[in-house]
Amino acid sequence: MTVVTLAVTSSGLETSAAAIISVGKADFTIAQKGVSEILSSTIDTGERARIEATPGVQSAVGVLVETEKINSDNPVFIEIGISPTQLKQFGVTIVRGHAYAPTASHQCMLGWRAAANLGLHVGSSFKANGTVNTVTGIYSTGNSFGDDAAMFPLPAIQGYNRVPGIVTLVFVKVKPGYPVSKVEQSINHNMPELTTIRTASQFGRADRNLVYLKAAVTGSTILAVIIGAVIVGNTMLLSVFERTRELGLLRAVGWTRRRIVGLILIEAVALGLIGACIGVGLSFAVSTGLEHLPALRGILHTNFTPMAFWRALYTALGMTLIGSLYPALRAAFLVPLRALSYE
Amino acid sequence: MSDPSPAGSASTLASGEGAVEQPPAIELHDVVKRYRGGVLALDHLDLVIAKQEFVAISGPSGCGKSTLLHLIAALDAPTSGTVLVNGHDLAKMHDLSYFRRREVGLVFQLHDLLPRISVLANVEIVMYGTHRSSRGRHQRANELLEEVDLGGRGSRLPTQLSGGERQRVAIARALANEPGILLADEPTGNLDAESARRIMELFGRVRNDGVTVVMVTHDEALAAMADRTDRIEVGRIVSSTRNR
User: Fold this and answer.
1) Of A246, A249, A256, the CB nearest to B129
2) Which residues from chain A sit within 8 angstroms of residue B129, using beta carbons?
3) A–B CB contacts, 8 A cutoff, strictly below
4) CA angle centred on B17, ends B13 and B23, rounded to 5°
């Protein structure tokens, strides 16, 4: 249960965090290298200019991403600062209303999911960043992360957060005919303080928290395996003690040591698999419960992947085999006569 | 016929009158068994049992009867001396599990059936690791239960049988791999007279089918139902009596 719960929650966190890079419909995303979390990344105007000047770059859309607690249902509401002239390059389609003005200070657009969740529409007032903003349009990005957010003029959101000229991420599109990897290599080489991200698995290059989280999950899994193996070992050892006479009888009537080891291991594996099935069921309940905790609502999205279940399966098998090896060997090396006189 | 001479004379008896050419099933030569702490269980014991013979080993408690049986079954090793079964020196045998599975069948005083599996499965369990298929094991176990008059009770749990019935299941189990030798340690010890009589009849039938039967008992009357009775006292054979 522990292994599956950790796997689905960390996978959910990774998916949520990595979703940000797929909003922009870019060939790759650029962030500051090695920051504690991706939203702490800062890229200044000089770096943006160098990115735009890199051979093969067709467009480089800089966005500032911030989070804000809107209400208890939206504890980490995403706000994206982007120039209205780059909305199309960013993959934004306005479905109702129109874009905000480039330098407007009290205008915004809402993703269609956010608008639906908040019950707002074009012309509504939306309080964010300590100001009341008029919703000028409703947009769609085709990405749930982007559609659950709000967009503001870039200078306005930079002003609210007192980071003029700074963006969090730069979404790069490569000119047709240019190999994406070559452009990436060029940027990584010329600007070592930045890093390019193309897939969710590369996300850790920028976001150290995710790397730490994954390390914590791996550590916890190893710990769970050790604790599980000790519990399985204890259970099987108790079973061997209880059945000393029976096992001695089997040895006395000609069962080989190998067959006794096989018997104990098969019993342990059967127990382990039953435990794994129950654990997976419980992890569903626990993960879903965690997802709905007020403190985690909107932050934690569990991600039940087949990998999580395979992980449960091989972890269960691993811990039962490790844990039952000593009891199996102990059973195999029972002296039949002594075992038969065991009370 | 009673021969009061001690150990060694059993060999003479076993190999006498028409059985001279028969190679022995069991031979013990100058066997000593001393347990930790110095307790002497067998004291320079010699014994020969011919094939297809039904021998009862009798004597008082603690005289070394069961120890003798354990040595023949390769459940224990002598401190010194030689134990030969079907001509094989047990001390030189590498695979004693195979020996116990194929050469000898064991019946214990407490019948020792596995309580959580059926009577049929209890008989089948000793046939794992042999050439028999699952179906073959099933068929053989059913045949054996028929032979010990327990046909139709294979699906029951051992706890649902009487003591005598359980002991007959144990005998069926001991015969499952068609061993040449059946070793029984006080098989009637916990049974009433009628059940004990039926077990003895069963041993007689088994002997008639060509199996050597060695039974340890402290009951002189039951011992007299065997072909021969060897009496042990303080680790030595003190008399050997041919009953028929």
Assistant:
1) A256
2) 254-256, 259
3) 43
4) 70
Do the beta carbons of residue A252 and residue B100 sit within 8 Å? yes
Q: Are B184 and B213 in contact (CB under 8 A)?
A: yes
Q: What is the DSSP string of A34-97?
A: TBSSGGG--B-HHHHHHHHHSTTEEEEEEEEEEEE--BTTBTTEEEEE--GGGTTTTT-EEEEE
Burial A144-159 (b: 16+ CB within 10 A, else e): ebbbbbbbbbbbbbbe
Closest-CA residue of chain B to A335:
B75
CA of A255: which chain B residue's CA is closest? Answer: B97
CB count within 10 Å of CB A219 equals 11
Of A52, A68, A88, A295, nearest to A172 by C-alpha is: A52
Token pair 């009637």 is found at: B188
Residues of chain A with Cβ-Cβ distance to B126 below 8 Å are: 253-254
Beta-carbon separation of B112 and A257 below 8 A:
no
Q: Which of B212, B110, B119, B125 is nearest to B169 (CA)?
A: B119
Rounded CA gap, A112 and A91, in Å? 14
- Name chain A contacts of B174, Cβ cutoff 8 Å: 253
List C-alpha distances in Å: A324 to A120, A243, A274, B134: 60, 15, 15, 27
Q: Give A-chain residues touching B75 at CB under 8 angstroms.
A: 252, 336-337
Could you read off the pLDDT tens digit of each residue along chain B, which spans 244 residues?
A: 444 343 333 333 444 444 445 579 999 999 999 998 889 999 999 999 999 999 999 999 889 999 999 999 999 999 999 999 988 899 999 888 889 988 999 998 776 899 999 999 999 999 988 888 999 999 999 999 998 888 888 999 999 998 889 989 999 999 999 899 999 998 888 778 888 888 888 889 889 999 999 999 988 888 999 999 999 999 999 999 998 7
Extents of the domains making up chain A: 28-197, 210-340
The pair of structure tokens assigned to A208 is: 């150290």
